[in-house]
Automatic annotation (TrEMBL), chains A, B:
Listed cofactors: pyridoxal 5'-phosphate
InterPro entries per record: Aminotransferase_I/II_large (IPR004839), Class-I_PLP-dep_aminotransf (IPR050859), PyrdxlP-dep_Trfase (IPR015424), PyrdxlP-dep_Trfase_major (IPR015421)
Record-annotated membrane-spanning stretches: none
Similarity comment: family membership: Belongs to the class-I pyridoxal-phosphate-dependent aminotransferase family.
PANTHER family reported for this sequence: AMINOTRANSFERASE (PTHR42790), AROMATIC AMINO ACID AMINOTRANSFERASE, HYPOTHETICAL (EUROFUNG) (PTHR42790:SF1)
Biological process according to GO: alpha-amino acid metabolic process
Record's protein name: Aminotransferase class I/classII large domain-containing protein
UniProt GO molecular function: pyridoxal phosphate binding; transaminase activity
Record-annotated Aminotransferase class I/classII large domain positions: 131-388
Keyword Transferase: yes
Keywords assigned: Aminotransferase, Pyridoxal phosphate, Transferase
Source lineage: Eukaryota, Fungi, Dikarya, Basidiomycota, Agaricomycotina
Keyword field contains Nucleus: no
Length: 570, 570
């Protein structure tokens, strides 16, 4: 079997030899983490690998009674998805067709036996091992692949980083909280953030400290201000935050994506105030790039165009261009070892795998391993075996090509949604009505129907309804409805009600009653004053990941009709 | 597909209708659990299932980019293992044979497609669903099966219990601690206990409160004494324990197994003092029964013999006999809803599945679901899909037959180990030198070599070396070495050293140097005074789960030789 990747005796790549080691950051551990002890059975482990040893020490079942003899999978070929799919699908597949026609995409298959003829090869996956108890670090073949991936794609700035598998980023983040957060800690988050991440620490009476954003995410000046002016007394006795939770790429819900310069600025501040940066990157490879309106020419620079063209090439050259065009990870600037990166197979393979990994300094990885030992242990051997053999089958280059295909698929879906807005509304690229503070590429959607005959004669369109910035990564369009234009807005405000919330809820319900379900923006509110948008906007998050082309158009058309009616309501 | 089990609209069986509902036990929740809030998006969920709805609310990947198109497995037939295997294996299979010959056992196979033609059937497993984000409760088909199993095998004494899947009992117990334990709590455990279970709560500064045992596990009189005489001041301010951790069947490490009467007594005490019973039952189905020495007649009563014979029958009658002969779960006496039972597929299918479940009252299940949502989420879809289809393929009766085969296999292995002791040592069934306080069926192993010529002429054997009680369930023989007979014992004691610990470590190392690895008993020490054994014994736990027949004999022979040498050392 050609696995496409080398067994690294120096797992972190050759380049790392000249890099510094991580600093000692163990003062960030909470008391529970300090209390954790390594197993008292080290002596036993030392003997366990001795050849000829009859081991009666462990309480492990015999693989002969594992019911699974072989496991086989048919998987899509690494290049199953085109890099440049057509803007309009030739023919949408109906649900019935999905159900009854086998996939027309190229596939490959593999079988995992219970007993491999090469049981000691570290790259071997066999069911008798995968379905047995395993170390919390999982089967060696998986971290072997992940270290190569981290080394080649993220290029960390220190030498002794390591990886630890987990059961997905929710688990990873929960374990990081378990590692670092003391009851009552204040945790830095984006002003709009992923509510499940917050729900993971709220029960421990930790509070969010929202940092204002623009289209690249957190604003360095606001972070600096919050940290430098931190006053424990004013903050109800809370210590200055030492944990930051951030989604740098395709941020959830805003779609904001942070480039290198911004990360450098933020890293410097975090280093100054000794903050651990926890970067949650489920959408990292869904870096879809700019949306260009139909019929318009790309306004890319020659350099940007050259980079985009390079990425459309098949083979290693295109793979390298893809990697180069990705925004660098915080790890790439991490000379201290203060970044904990969370990666998941949820968006690049399948969420149900419940498989992801953390990259961090070795002290953190050691404690996180202890935490895993008394909670999840290793991820399911079904998940690690099937995913590892899939990765081996594709190889590193093949996996990169797979990611490019997935990226192209989501870019296509994003284009459908933006195109639908273009077709349904009258768009204006309006710097003044910007959603994000920097205002670039912000689109305001107006009703195509003029207010009255008079306006129609003058060729005028209707009122501004919605403003958004087309995302460059992720799965979401985050949009602001001009809710303060609603005829009842002032009346409600005068009555002392939260007019925006009341009217957004009303609009959301009307949409749902018309069979279109958006996520309400308030659900993602990280608290504090908002830099994105402002008073008078009501927010929705629209996911373009799952709807068909036809559904996307239908939903946006319905949205437009409901909006028209909504703003006319007296 | 004949699944062999019914879709229960009343999931907990008909019999439950007449039973009481669980009491309100929410005062056991810790502060973190009380702080947990249900999702604020209930409204959204209400709409999500409406036919025709275009859902743009969730951040879920499209199944078209899940690389897995089909998943197939070859599994052993439900009756692959005989119910009454021969005492001595005909011919041990060598490792080489294991590696190169495919299994000779009967198998069956199945394939799980990405898209099933019956997507809405609750029993359907398809990859587009299994590999998608799922509710923390897992695919409906799995709890459907588990509720049937719990209802038919454990027969809980109240009506509104439910199940919740998890990633194995370590995860289950960790979540229970997260549910109930407040920092610094005192937790009731057996005097010898599973160290990983203790390691799960030690970092939270919880302490063990060991309860003395006999061969049925915890002693009611000691539990009553500990709880009734609890004095917070004497206990360093610790509140009276409200959590009990127990392994009733094939207890780890002692092999003790608790029958109905003892459970009733203990339940009554727990009810009186409002203690939550957490029963961890990985070995429940490995209830292997009594060991009968070779050549001796079974000393079973006629009734016991009739029950044993009934269990050897194939078909439903044998299955029913198997279920009837299992010690009842604490759930069967649980009129309050104060039992949290942990079950796992680790010993009945494979540990690497990382799949198990909790059975508890609905309040506890609701909070545990919240805990799962912010940590593991649902178990891996690979694990739930493959395990569920396997269970459906076998059906309920088939699964019970499978468990009987697994039980028979471990009984065979236990017999190998006990037989090896019989062949290698001179055994005496000695009520006076008992390891367990009640002394029944305790075996003391003497050296077959007499001390001197004089003893030899008199037909006397050598000194007593080891004492144990053959386990009736589980995977372990827990034995006491007569360490105080060692020539250095008194000298070491006079020097103020812990002679038992020093000498057990010495013996353990000598065994390991001779290629036999046992688990040292001190590792399982739950603290406090011991009722099992006593001063002068050194303990080892021997697992019979993994070694071949030949290895078992070799290990016990080596043990005997090392012991002889050890006790002669001056």
């Amino acid at each position: 079997m050609d696995t496409g990747f080398e067994i690294a005796t120096e797992p972190r790549g050759e380049a790392s030899a000249s890099l510094p080691q991580a600093k000692d950051l163990s003062h960030h551990f909470n008391q529970t983490t300090k209390n954790r002890e390594a197993s008292t059975l080290k002596e036993l482990y030392r003997y366990a690998g001795v050849p000829g040893m009859i081991t009666m020490a462990g309480g492990i079942p015999h693989p002969e009674v594992f019911p699974f003899e072989t496991l086989s999978a048919t998987i899509l070929a690494h290049d199953a998805f085109p890099l440049d799919p057509p803007r309009v699908p030739k023919k949408g597949k109906s649900l019935i067709e999905w159900l009854f026609s086998p996939t027309s995409l190229p596939t490959t298959s593999f079988t995992i036996p219970k007993w491999s003829p090469k049981p000691v090869d570290p790259k071997t996956i066999q069911l008798s091992t995968s379905l047995q108890y395993q170390a919390a670090t999982g089967p060696p073949a998986l971290p072997l692949f992940l270290r190569e991936y981290v080394s080649k794609v993220y290029k960390p700035a220190y030498s002794d980083w390591d990886v630890l598998v987990n059961v997905g980023n929710t688990d990873g983040w929960s374990k990081i909280i378990n590692l670092l957060a003391e009851k009552g800690d204040a945790i830095l988050v984006e002003e709009w953030t992923y509510p499940s991440a917050v729900n993971s620490f709220l029960p421990y009476e930790c509070k969010t400290v929202p940092i204002k954003m623009d289209k690249e995410g957190m604003l360095p000046e606001h972070l600096e201000k919050v940290l430098s002016e931190w006053n424990e007394e004013e903050r109800g006795g809370k210590k200055r935050p030492h944990i930051m939770y951030t989604i740098p790429t395709g941020q959830n819900p805003t779609g904001a994506t942070m480039e290198a310069e911004r990360k450098k600025q933020l890293y410097k501040i975090c280093s100054k105030y000794d903050v651990i940066i926890c970067e949650d990157e489920p959408y990292y490879c869904l870096y879809t790039g700019e949306w260009t309106p139909k019929g318009s020419k790309s306004d890319k620079s020659i350099l940007a165009q050259r980079r985009a063209d390079a990425e459309k090439k098949e083979g290693s050259e295109g793979n390298q261009a893809f990697i180069k065009n990705l925004p660098p990870s915080y790890l790439h600037f991490d000379v201290d070892g203060r970044v904990i990166r969370m990666d998941t197979f949820s968006k690049t393979s399948a969420p149900g795998s419940r498989l992801g990994w953390i990259t961090a300094n070795p002290q953190f990885i050691e404690r996180l391993t202890r935490i895993s030992e008394t909670s999840t242990q290793a991820p399911s051997g079904f998940a690690t075996a099937l995913t590892t053999v899939m990765l081996q089958k594709w190889g590193f280059e093949g996996y990169i090509r797979w990611l490019r295909g997935v990226k192209a698929t989501y870019n296509m879906r994003k284009t459908w949604m933006c195109d639908a807005f273009e077709d349904v509304f009258h768009l204006e690229f309006d710097q003044n009505k910007s959603l994000f503070p920097d205002g670039s590429k912000t689109i305001t959607c107006y009703s195509k129907t003029p207010k009255n005959k008079w306006d129609e004669k003058k060729g005028l369109h209707g009122p501004a309804l919605v403003t958004f910035t087309p995302p460059t990564a992720g799965m979401f369009v985050f949009l602001g409805v001009h809710i303060s234009e609603h005829p009842d807005y002032d009346k409600l405000t005068r009555k002392g009600e939260d007019a925006t919330h009341v009217l957004v809820q009303k609009l959301w319900t009307e949409l749902a009653d018309n069979l279109v379900l958006f996520a309400p923006g308030w659900y993602f509110d990280g608290g504090g004053e908002h830099a994105i948008g402002g008073k008078g906007y009501g927010y929705f998050r629209l996911s373009f990941s799952i709807a068909t082309y036809e559904e996307t158009y239908k939903a946006i058309r319905t949205f437009s009709q409901v909006l028209e009616k909504f703003f006319k309501t007296k």
